[in-house]
Design brief:
CATH superfamily of the largest domain: Butyryl-CoA Dehydrogenase, subunit A, domain 3
Mean pLDDT: 92
Radius of gyration: 22 Å
CATH topology of the largest domain: Butyryl-CoA Dehydrogenase, subunit A, domain 3
CATH class of the largest domain: Mainly Alpha
Helix content: 40-55%
Low-confidence stretches: 1-10
Structural class: alpha+beta
Number of helices: 10
Number of strands: 8
């Protein structure tokens, strides 16, 4: 993988906010104090984002050239992990904004400079959040292929107002929609030979309608509702990146394009992996308190004195340490300008999220009914960590890609 002129771990931009361990610990504790309330109500965590914005953390990753924080992946990962350890739905929404902001820094970004600057300055001044809207009822995830049913049509505004686009469509799983300011909408044009790409839509544009359908097992406060677009008009320049469908393939374009795509995928897997690893770490932290204070009468001592308990706790430690080593390695590679190939990023996601789920399952085995009681946070951590399996790339796609690569190395498959 060739080096990318995107970021270096040293010499962060002057406008990157200070992110010290004390601040992150305070954020974890503050968000954890209300996490159960958000889980029960499913309400958008507005107060959490107000706090993040007060510390300059919403625009942490946005392009430095437009006034953003320009942070490295290592810094972004520390923030996401700290937030997720307290309230993971907040961390998921913030992750999606960080990924969109990072995409604006990519060497292959085709976004107009004026819109990159607008999104960045909105984030810095107002804490404006942005997310990609890609999944559809019929299409599913675009990662599986196929054209989106969401359609953009050229229109003439008339009265000297200039040309633009009209968007119609239906999107699922729009994480954070109740608090977003910008929607990065995946759609196709109605041209004879359709192009696909990204249209930047203001969240409160006329014709944008939310269907409050999110009632999920985990990450309930992420507010990942449905969104319907009905004759939504946007400016011509808001078609920020349109290409022939084949040109969106990970191996399409120049080497710079291929490397930039690999870097974006590495950012996604590291941040999501850090999020779910943090959920498992929070579960481990609660478990430690339980094991050292729970002393059944039949034992006459805390559960922590039992070798069997110590063995299973050691297995949890092994899983979490493996995650930490893998995430550290991938982060260093990205910030050094050498992101791992997409197949390896997929394997990272598969391993880290699998380890996180297994760690929480072991904690449940050690606690029995206590762990599944709603008054304790362990059952919430379990519901939240299970959501890790849903994110793209899913396990089957990860393993097929890795298997094909192994076979290609032998010449057994074309």
């Amino acid at each position: 993988m060739s080096a990318l002129p995107l970021r270096r771990a040293s010499a962060p931009p002057e406008n990157t906010p200070a992110v010290d361990a004390a601040l992150l610990a305070r954020l974890t504790a503050q968000f954890a104090a209300t996490a159960a309330d958000h889980d029960r109500s499913g309400a958008f965590p507005r107060e959490n984002f107000a706090t993040l914005q007060a510390h300059g953390l919403v625009g942490l990753v946005a392009p430095a050239e437009y006034g953003g924080g320009g942070a490295t992946l290592a810094t972004a990962r520390r923030v996401i992990a700290a937030v997720a350890r307290g309230e993971p739905a907040t961390a998921l929404i913030l992750t999606m904004t960080y990924l969109q902001h990072h995409a604006l820094t990519r060497a292959d970004s085709r976004w107009p400079a004026a819109l990159r600057e607008r999104v960045t300055r909105d984030a810095m001044a107002q804490g404006a959040l942005i997310n990609a809207l890609r999944v559809e009822p019929a299409l599913g995830s675009p990662a599986r292929g196929g054209l989106p049913a969401t359609v953009a049509r050229r229109h003439s505004a008339g009265k000297g107002e200039g040309d633009g686009w009209t968007i119609d469509g239906h999107k699922l799983y729009t994480t954070g929609i109740e608090g977003l300011s910008w929607l990065s909408v995946w759609a196709r044009t109605d041209e004879a030979v359709p192009r696909t790409g990204v249209f930047l839509v203001p969240r409160h544009a006329p014709g944008v309608r939310v269907i409050a359908s999110w009632d999920h097992l985990g990450l309930r406060a992420s507010g990942s509702h449905e969104v319907v677009f009905e004759n939504v008009a946007i400016d011509l320049a808001h078609a920020v990146d349109l290409r022939a469908p084949a040109d969106w393939a990970p191996d399409a374009g120049s080497q710079t394009d291929i490397d930039a795509h690999a870097t974006q995928q590495a950012w996604m897997t590291v941040l999501l992996g850090s999020l779910y690893d943090a959920v498992a770490t929070a579960a481990r932290d609660w478990l430690l308190g339980f094991l050292t204070t729970r002393a059944p009468g039949s034992l006459g001592a805390p559960l922590s004195t039992l070798p069997r308990v110590q063995e299973h706790l050691g297995e949890i430690e092994a899983l979490l340490r493996t995650n930490r080593v893998l995430l550290d390695d991938a982060t260093a590679a990205v910030d050094g300008g050498h992101a791992q190939p997409g197949t390896d990023s997929g394997l990272l996601k598969y391993t880290v999220t699998g380890n996180a789920v297994r760690a929480v399952e072991l904690a449940l085995q050690l606690t029995g009914n206590h762990g599944l009681t709603r008054q304790n946070p362990l059952e919430r951590h379990y519901r939240d960590v299970l959501c890790s399996r849903i994110h793209t790339p899913q396990n089957d796609a990860v393993l097929v890609a890795a298997g094909k690569r192994a076979l290609l190395s032998t010449g057994a498959v074309a």
